[in-house]
Structure to design on (243 residues):
């Protein structure tokens, strides 16, 4: 069991850990594939879109803007250039709606964060209070808007939005806060982005799987001495209380 009293920095992922995001993208993608079925079969449109999205990820990063560009480019390709301007306009409007998703905290998140803060502020447990931040990746403006809309920032000391969450990004984060890997705990829903790179640098991670994972984040999961699993965000309470 992790000795949480030795942790100096706790980072919590945002999308699909604190609030729901992926289902909104999935809904648009499903609507999009049906919308273009007069040009190609649904399965072809879906498959080609995912290829396009993956190919664009390196240059465009993550978020609704990159998603919209991939939707438009794929529509042109699968229709062999026959897609109408009115159809492209509709696709763009669907994509733009993702900027305004509500970022409503998932069930149990807010009450859990309140209790976690109470624990961290208990000087008998933590003589030196760990800092707790939101750590997410994607378009900085888009992610900031969701953070502010969620109303959860008051439970955190700060937030960071990086373009990616790879090993080098976690090392940069730890350097910024002046902590070593053994003093760091990451909590998130993506094994690929929140767990694997954290374990590889020698830090600690709590994995909270989300019911609707993004297929781009699919990866092989494994067990590790620094890995802890929670069925839901609520389960963090019993986990963090066990010192």
């Amino acid at each position: 069991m992790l000795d949480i009293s030795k942790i100096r920095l706790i980072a919590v992922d945002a999308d699909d850990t604190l609030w729901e995001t992926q289902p909104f993208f999935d809904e648009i993608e499903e609507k999009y594939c049906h919308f273009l079925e007069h040009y190609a079969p649904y399965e072809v449109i879906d498959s080609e879109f995912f290829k396009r999205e993956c190919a664009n990820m390196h240059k465009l990063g993550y978020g609704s803007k990159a998603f919209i560009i991939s939707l438009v480019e794929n529509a042109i390709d699968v229709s062999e250039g026959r897609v109408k301007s009115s159809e492209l306009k509709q696709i763009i409007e669907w994509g733009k709606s993702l900027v305004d998703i509500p970022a409503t905290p998932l069930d149990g998140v807010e009450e859990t964060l309140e209790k976690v803060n109470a624990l961290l502020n208990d000087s008998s447990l933590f003589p030196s209070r760990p800092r707790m931040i939101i750590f997410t990746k994607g378009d900085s403006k888009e992610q900031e808007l969701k953070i502010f809309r969620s109303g959860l920032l008051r439970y955190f000391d700060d937030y960071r939005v990086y373009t990616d969450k790879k090993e080098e990004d976690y090392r940069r984060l730890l350097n910024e806060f002046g902590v070593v890997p053994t003093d760091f705990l990451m909590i998130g829903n993506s094994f690929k982005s929140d767990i694997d790179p954290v374990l590889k640098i020698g830090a600690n991670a709590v994995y909270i799987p989300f019911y609707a994972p993004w297929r781009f984040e699919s990866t092989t999961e494994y067990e590790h001495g620094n890995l802890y699993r929670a069925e839901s965000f609520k389960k963090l309470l019993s986990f963090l209380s066990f010192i």
Q: What stands out?
A: The longest strand covers residues 131-137. The two ends are 8 Å apart (CA to CA). The beta strands are 9-12, 131-137, 158-162, 184-188, 204-207, 227-229. The chain has two domains: 4-19+104-241, 22-100.
